[in-house]
Amino acid sequence: MELIIYLLIGAIAGFAAGLFGVGGGLIIVPILYIVFTQLNYDPSVLMHMAVGTSLATIIVTSISSVTAHHKKGAVMWPVFRNLAPGLIVGAFVGAGIADFLSGQGLQLLIGGFALWVAFKMFRGANIAVDPSHHLPSTAKQVMAGGGIGIASAIFGIGGGSLTVPYLNRYGVVMQKAVATSAACGLPIAVAGALGFMWFGKQAEVAVPNTIGYIHIYAFIGISVMSFITAKVGAKVAHLLSPAMLKKCFACLLTTVGCYFVYQGMRVFF
């Protein structure tokens, strides 16, 4: 039964990854948190395990998603090369920061972040991209990659929630922003997952079937299905209008944000 749940999570998360370029983490993290809670795992590491496992699955999801987007010629590889160094370093640093935060602190951070991005995306859904805007210099892109990497590791996401708005802001159309974001998810996921494995080992997590903060069975089940469904999501992304993509993206983030803010605030009441 547990494996079936992980397969279902993977199917939903993979589709979302291909559709929105978010790596699926915004869906995987809250669902894994619920599943791990029901399995009575140590409450102090629940959130860290959900985030770490999410990052590990994004390795597989992003490969599937970016392959589909690359066939459409939508991935901006020069931009990816500029962002990648910062993404890698930032993601490992972010895993270390997350290790120091409490479970409730992580919930409130993720929830608040999701709501902020949702507001920004929904507000700009019908605003046409200004093609006169140009991406900043290579050095500034590397620094932006570092910031995106840190935040992505803390939140357990593939970076799409930051990479997509960042590229959109500089005149990149939604489909290309989503495709490039999918590519950026790979270095974030690899560095972040290694970080959560390392810091989890130091914390000596006493939960069966784990390597550090990463749950092996959840990783396998989610990865298998997400690899398949991410391709479907990527195809659908190229059929929708940019405005519709932004609005759907914002609705997804709002739902996740409200859930985590509620969970994080419960401890105070």
TrEMBL record:
InterPro entries: TM_pro_TauE-like. The keyword Cell membrane applies. It is found in: Cell membrane; Membrane. GO terms for cellular component: plasma membrane. It comes from the Bacteria. Keywords: Cell membrane, Membrane, Transmembrane, Transmembrane helix. This is Probable membrane transporter protein. It comes from Acinetobacter towneri.
